[in-house]
Prior knowledge:
By secondary structure, the chain is α+β, with helices and mostly antiparallel strands. The protein contains 3 helices and 2 strands, in the order ααβαβ. The protein has one domain (2-98). It has a two-stranded parallel sheet with strand order 1-2. Helix 3 links the parallel strand 1 (28-31) and strand 2 (60-63). The protein is globular and about 35 Å long.
Amino acid sequence: MNALANDQARRIASLMHTHRTELGDLTVDLYAGDSGTAPAMTATSVVESEQHMRTHPPDILLTNYTMLDRVPRPAGSLSVDTGITSSVRSTCADFASAS
């Protein structure tokens, strides 16, 4: 399940790096349970630091369906609605890999 999110993260990181001028300061984070601790995007990876997600909500959050209820929240926040998802304008879920 995380293989799909990890693959998408690598592809998006490459796309972001190649088209930085057109895309500006768009940020992409990965939260998939086995995420690492990378605090910044590179040409081959997106942000994976849970602490960074709490303090700097991403424009795009890549995750899998099992992690949706564990999305990082700012310290003291009790609700996902007041966490990073409060800035989300749209979502896209891939449930094809859920079966």
